[in-house]
Amino acid sequence: MIKVYVSPSCLSSKKVIQFFDKHKIPYIKRNIIQNPLTESEIKVLLQFVPNGVHDIVSSRAKFIKMHAVNIENLRMKEVYELIKTSPTVLKRPIILQEDKKRIQIGYNEDEIELFLRDNLEKEFDDYYKIF
């Protein structure tokens, strides 16, 4: 199952949800602001990114800038706590497909189509069976 981690005020999050709905792709949506990630969920995300924390934490996040947070100087426990207590530091949306061991961060329709190739092919196959 595809999990989509979003925040309600994020335009990219809204676009990815619209994309999934339009293509009738099943997903589980998680508002990370109302329901922050747990430490174990953060660890799962980090398993799928090549550059670790830098791939999921935005250096441009307001919290990072206001508090002059240098991710390089944080221990992993501190990173987990930062993400749990200030989820807006995460890049969004995050699309995770654990069973296929893949992750997509941010909204780029072309990249999402590649990411979801198997799912979209099934949709088109089902569509053409009607004719």
Output the keywords.
7 helices, Tscrpt_reg_Spx/MgsR, alpha+beta, four-stranded mixed sheet, 46% helix, Glutaredoxin, 131 residues, Transcriptional regulator Spx, disordered C terminus
What would you say this structure looks like, in words?
By secondary structure, the protein is of the alpha+beta class. It has a single domain, classed as 3-Layer(aba) Sandwich (Glutaredoxin). It is 46% helix and 14% strand. It is built from seven helices and four strands. A four-stranded mixed β-sheet has the order 2-1-3-4, with helices on one face. The longest helix has 13 residues. This is Transcriptional regulator Spx. Belongs to the ArsC family. InterPro entries: Arsenate_reductase-like, Thioredoxin-like_sf, Tscrpt_reg_Spx/MgsR.
DSSP strand content: 5-15%
Structural classification: alpha+beta
Radius of gyration: 16 Å
Helix content: 40-55%
Alpha carbon gap, first and last residue: 28 Å
Query: Strand count, sense and closure of the main sheet?
Result: 4 strands, mixed
**Low-confidence parts:** 127-131
- SSE series: EHEHHHHEEHH
The CATH superfamily name is Glutaredoxin
> Can you identify the CATH class?
Alpha Beta
CATH architecture: 3-Layer(aba) Sandwich
Number of strands: 4
Overall mean pLDDT stands at 89
Total of helices: 7
The largest sheet has its strands arranged as 2-1-3-4
Broad shape: globular
Work out the count of structural domains.
1
CATH topology: Glutaredoxin
Helix and strand topology:
Elements: E1 2-6, H1 11-22, E2 27-31, H2 39-47, H3 53-56, H4 62-66, H5 76-85, E3 94-97, E4 102-105, H6 109-115, H7 117-129
Parallel strand pairs: 1-2
Antiparallel strand pairs: 1-3, 3-4
